[in-house]
């Protein structure tokens, strides 16, 4: 299954990010292409422990939910609400500034995320709990893939 530890999968995501334009039309959801770029950057900041997010309430962390989200052979459905701290619409996400700069920042975060040795430690995911490197690499791939598909990239 695709993940960012695999060089081909990482290069695929990098190429797809480069295809996004400020005026790329969304196929679902409400974010603009520029907001999506910033949202993906916030995701990488979360993964690397640089963006703090409150733990989800309820039944979380759920190993079953984590397995379904990461390893079930299906694309993520549309319409799941993001965490408030990453929400572009709710004011929790990083605001878009300049498109080319924000794309460059996303690409730098992606490169740093996969670099070995890491200069960060894995954190506890607010919904999925403790995750290993394999889980984080899969999550990062799926999150990027989901939002790049949202904009036809």
Description:
- The protein has 153 residues and is mainly α.
- The protein has one domain: Four Helix Bundle (Hemerythrin (Met), subunit A).
- It has helices spanning 7-19, 33-47, 63-71, 99-114, 133-150.
- Helix 1 packs parallel to helix 5 (133-150), helix 2 runs parallel beside helix 4 and helix 2 packs antiparallel against helix 5.
Write the layout of secondary structure elements.
Layout: H1 7-19, H2 33-47, H3 63-71, H4 99-114, H5 133-150
Helix pairs in contact: 1-5, 2-4, 2-5
Notable features of this structure?
153 residues; mainly alpha; Four Helix Bundle (Hemerythrin (Met), subunit A); globular
Brief synopsis:
The chain has 153 residues and is mainly α. 46% of the residues lie in helices and 0% in strands.
Assigned CATH class? Mainly Alpha
Q: Structural class of the helices, strands and pairings?
A: mainly alpha
Mean pLDDT, nearest integer? 92
The helix content is: 40-55%
Largest sheet: none
User: What share of the residues does DSSP label as strand, in percent?
Assistant: under 5%
Count of individual helical segments: 5
Q: Categorize the overall geometry.
A: globular
Total discrete domains: 1
- By DSSP, the count of extended strands is 0
The parts where pLDDT drops under 50 for at least 5 residues are none
Q: What's the gyration radius in Å?
A: 15 Å
**First-residue to last-residue Cα separation:** 19 Å
CATH topological fold name: Four Helix Bundle (Hemerythrin (Met), subunit A)
Order of helices and strands: HHHHH
CATH architecture: Up-down Bundle
């Amino acid at each position: 299954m695709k993940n960012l530890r695999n060089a081909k999968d990482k290069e695929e995501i990098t190429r797809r990010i480069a295809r996004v334009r400020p005026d790329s039309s969304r196929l679902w959801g409400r974010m603009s292409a520029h907001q999506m770029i910033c949202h993906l950057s916030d995701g990488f900041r979360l993964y690397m422990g640089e963006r703090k997010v409150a733990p989800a309430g309820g039944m979380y962390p759920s190993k079953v939910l984590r397995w379904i989200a990461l390893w079930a052979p299906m694309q993520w459905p549309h319409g799941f609400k993001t965490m408030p701290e990453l929400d572009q619409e709710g004011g929790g996400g990083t605001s878009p500034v300049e498109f080319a700069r924000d794309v460059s920042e996303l690409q730098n975060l992606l490169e740093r995320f996969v670099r070995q040795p890491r200069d960060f430690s894995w954190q506890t995911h607010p919904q999925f709990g403790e995750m290993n490197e394999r889980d984080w690499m899969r999550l990062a791939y799926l999150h990027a893939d989901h939002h790049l598909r949202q904009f036809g990239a």
